[in-house]
Fold:
Amino acid sequence: MAVEITDSNFEEVVLKSDKPVLVDFWAEWCGPCRMVGPVVEELSKEYEGKAVVGKLNVDHNPKVATDYGIMSIPALLIFKNGQLVDKQVGAVPKHILDGKLKAQIA
Structure:
């Protein structure tokens, strides 16, 4: 299951992770976010132990969303070693996110 990421645990879960991290910035009222949600859950199971996959609700956690300039959702950001290394804005097929995440696993 995808990890719940918040303003208060973002640094610990994302920036200090020793694995690549995919963060899904979403909101309950966002239709495309609801389309991407099940894909994010699937990826969280498939990458268990290899990467961290989490969801950050922008309505409940505005600080991180503002810090990273999130203007449109869904926005899927990939971090490695505490650095933003890839970004995807908008709903995309699973294979695109899978490829982006796979590219960060060494």
About this structure: The first strand starts at residue 3 and ends at 4. The beta strands are 3-4, 21-26, 52-57, 75-80, 83-89. Residues 3-102 form a domain with the Glutaredoxin fold (CATH 3.40.30.10).
